[in-house]
UniProtKB/TrEMBL annotation:
Main location per the UniProt record: nucleus
Span of domain DUF659: 48-196
Localization of this protein: Nucleus
GO molecular function, one term: zinc ion binding
Pfam families from the UniProt entry: DUF659
Organism: Cyphomyrmex costatus
Keyword Zinc: yes
InterPro entries the record matches: DUF659, RNaseH-like_sf, ZnF_BED_domain_contain
Domain of life per record: Eukaryota
One Gene Ontology cellular component: nucleus
Transmembrane portions of the chain: none
Protein name: Zinc finger BED domain-containing protein 1
Keywords, ordered alphabetically: Metal-binding, Nucleus, Zinc, Zinc-finger
Length: 335
């Protein structure tokens, strides 16, 4: 019984991303004492040991699975922790489970990068990870990364020149970012919306006023919407920000007007009706790209075969939208 409880705590920490210190928390210990008075809660050291044991068991099982896989693909990307200025290389493996006829994906982990992100070093990291998981180069059919030169060369050096496939979602992300940044009228409007959203994020009073107006419409707490701020590295966050702003535009206008009447000096001006129409047109253009981004990012179905029909459908849709809209996002070529 005690062993099962300890394993449950280990599972909870791993699955729910709880800190190891939870076993020392006063409320957690009080709950466990009430639920199982005779159970002795393990120390952090014991939990750490159990987690390491679980990892090795899972690693052994995954290695056994991979040893029987003759054809697989890898996806990899470098992620930088902005708070600790550390870089990490993540690798995910994809293969078909022919017994159950399902597409499976396994995250092999995040490898901290201790040197400069040069192709030679990244190639060595690839080799070390493949060696650790007993992955043979001959079984790797394709490696999908972004379009960065260092990643492309690292794949060429490690797996061969015919194994690299550029990530379509990443190319679409860059293309859309460049198109937005080259449309001056839209850039100005986006900056205005960002300024307004920032104002609502920083002021408790105006945020509460926005919630109050929605409650007056009869919305319950779980249905009340908040403004969204964009993330500069993700174009779809710009779309989500503009889309949510359109949903709340009338309420935002009311809050800003009331705030100005009260004499708030830092209250930003509401954007004009013409600018709102431009946002609507931009969202009409960006919405299909968002749908494509979501569709092409699936893990439980093959996405590579979808690219050509999706691109053709997207081109037709965008052509029709640009003819009907008052604002046109600049056409941008990208490999």
């Amino acid at each position: 019984m005690a062993n099962r409880l300890t394993n449950s705590i280990v599972y909870m920490i791993a699955k729910d991303h709880q800190p190891l210190s939870i076993v020392d928390d006063e409320d957690f210990r009080a709950l466990m004492k009430l639920a199982v008075p005779l159970y002795k809660i393990p120390s952090r050291k014991t939990i750490t040991t159990r987690l390491d044991d679980k990892y090795h068991i899972i690693q052994y099982k995954i290695k056994a699975i991979l040893s029987n896989i003759k054809n697989l693909s890898l996806t990899s990307d470098i992620w930088t922790d902005p708070y600790n200025t550390k870089g990490f290389l993540g690798i995910t493996i994809h293969y078909i489970d022919y017994k159950n006829l399902t597409l499976e994906s396994i995250d092999l982990g995040m490898q901290e990068l201790e040197n400069r992100h040069e192709a030679v070093y990244i190639s060595q990291v690839f080799k070390n990870i493949c060696e650790e998981w007993n992955i043979q180069n001959t079984s790797v059919c394709a490696v999908i990364t972004d379009n960065a030169a260092n990643m492309r060369k690292a794949v060429y050096d490690t797996f061969g020149s015919n194994k690299h496939i550029p990530c379509f979602a990443h190319s679409l992300n860059l293309m859309t970012q460049e198109a937005i940044s080259s449309t001056q009228e839209l850039k100005v409007i986006i900056q205005k919306v960002k300024h307004i959203v920032t104002f609502f994020k920083r002021s408790v009073n105006v945020a509460d006023a926005l919630k109050k107006l929605q409650r007056q419409e009869g919305k319950t707490e779980d249905k009340i919407l908040k403004l969204k701020q964009e993330c500069e590295t993700r174009w779809n966050s710009t779309f989500l920000m503009l889309s949510r702003f359109l949903q709340l535009a009338n309420h935002v206008s009311t809050v800003l007007i009331n705030n100005s009447i009260l004499g708030s000096a830092d209250s930003p001006e509401m954007i004009s009706r013409a600018e709102l129409k431009a946002i609507e047109d931009a969202c009409d253009l960006l919405s299909p790209i968002e749908l494509v981004t979501v569709e092409i990012s699936g893990e439980k179905y093959v996405t590579c075969s979808k690219i050509i029909p999706i691109v053709n459908c997207l081109m037709v849709t965008q052509s029709n939208n640009s003819k009907n809209g008052s604002i046109c996002i600049s056409k941008t070529k990208h490999p």
